[in-house]
Design goal:
This protein has 14 helices and 13 strands. The chain is flat, with a radius of gyration of 39 Å. With 399 residues, the protein is an alpha/beta fold.
């Protein structure tokens, strides 16, 4: 080993060791808590909804939960489902006209729609006739002040409210149509924050504080009870979970940007680059000439048989095919059972039945049909098929 080669290997080992140490440092370094508002089932951050999505099956047992990533209009197309819930939860629910029209049709047909948002688009508020007042939100730090939520239903109501000390909002309904609206919940000041609005044969359930449904509050104290009770107003039915109108919905500027933004994919990309670098260092020179691949000779017998069979079929010469099948049958008797096929027919049938184990009536039918073919100039496809069934029965049952 030359001095130059040893130097190259030492540098390569040093480079690999340094890169591995860098990757380990990145992987095991403490990560800051990501407080980005996501509301997506894909994210386990505090303001994501992966935990809520995981327990949806418990809220709607033995029912199907489907995810809509492209909007309700594209997801349902022209169909109007029955006995179905729609679930929309995000900080801003800016629904386009096509999707909102579809949601309205679904609700009118007798289904139930759950909407939770801080701010709603005007097509939603104008159609349902309500207005949201943005209350003062509590920051992530713990304050002396708190916000309490509760339910109007006595069976769901708790003594003392569900209290939130941080990372919560206090939005409430400023106006709503009292003829169509039922108050379901309110805050500690008595301000309405959860309502049901009738629509045709269905209903909309609207909550003005979606942050209460995130991962952070699901695992914090008894706040999960508020989430489950709110969603329990929906009937046990098939449910469509919206992922289009989410602040955490993926927006990919480029393929590489998507890879670099995802921690696991980013590490995989770096390892791939390391592998390429190591290959260039240690396998940069070709060690031997490439060995050509020699393919084994191809068996074309089956192709030949298929071609001949197709030729016979196109000519529709069923009689010729049947006669050849009969000749092969006689050759089978001679080669396998050493029978003299020139024997009288009755004796040949008796000997063939004794040696093959096939009933004499089957063999008699074959010989009878063969004798009839000698008296005609053509036969039908059905005759050929019946003769072939007799032969196949013989071949399957002979021994």
């Amino acid at each position: 080993m030359t001095r130059k080669t040893r130097k190259h290997r030492f540098l390569a080992l040093l480079l690999v060791t340094g890169f591995i140490l860098l990757v380990v440092a990145i992987v095991y370094a403490p990560q800051p808590v990501d407080w980005t508002a996501s509301y997506s089932k894909r994210h386990s951050v505090p303001l994501g909804m992966s935990l809520v999505y995981d327990v949806v099956d418990e809220l709607f047992p033995q029912k199907e939960v489907r995810v809509s990533n492209s909007g309700v209009a594209d997801f349902l197309e022209d169909a109007i489902p029955l006995n179905t819930n729609l679930l929309f939860i995000n900080d801003q629910l800016e629904m386009d006209a096509e999707d909102w029209t579809k949601v309205w049709e679904v609700a009118t047909a007798g289904n139930h729609v759950f909407l939770a948002a801080d701010r709603f688009s005007t097509n939603i508020t104008d159609s349902l006739g309500f207005e949201i007042q943005q209350g003062m939100a509590l920051p992530r730090i713990l304050l002396n002040d708190s916000i309490g939520y509760n339910f109007a239903n006595r069976q769901l109501k708790v003594a003392g409210h569900y209290w939130y000390g941080r990372t919560i909002t206090n939005n409430y309904f400023l106006n709503y149509d009292t003829l169509k609206t039922t108050v379901l919940g309110y805050d500690h000041k008595g301000q309405t924050n959860f309502v049901r609005i009738r629509c045709g044969d269905g209903a909309f359930y609207i909550n003005s504080n979606p942050i209460a449904f995130t991962n952070y509050h699901l695992i914090n104290d008894n706040k999960s009870e508020y989430v489950f009770k709110s969603l329990s107003y929906l009937p046990v039915a098939n449910t469509i979970w919206d992922e289009k109108y989410k602040s955490g919905a993926p927006v990919v500027a480029s393929q590489m940007a998507f890879v670099l933004e995802n921690r696991s994919l980013r590490m995989a990309w770096y390892l791939f680059l390391l592998g390429v670098l190591l290959f260039m260092v240690f396998q940069g020179k070709r060690r031997q000439r490439a060995i050509p691949v020699v393919e084994a000779p191809r068996n074309s017998s089956l192709d030949f048989v298929e071609t001949i069979a197709r030729l016979y079929f196109l000519n529709q010469n069923h009689l010729n095919i049947a006669q050849k099948r009969y000749q092969f049958f006689l050759d089978f008797l001679r080669s396998k059972y050493y029978l003299d096929t020139s024997l009288p027919e009755s004796r040949l049938i008796e000997e063939a039945s004794r040696k093959s184990g096939v009933p004499e009536r089957t063999l008699a039918a074959i010989f009878r049909m063969a004798a009839n073919m000698d008296k005609v100039s053509r036969i039908s496809h059905e005759d050929l098929h019946q003769f072939n069934r007799q032969l196949e029965f013989f071949y399957k049952n002979c021994h």
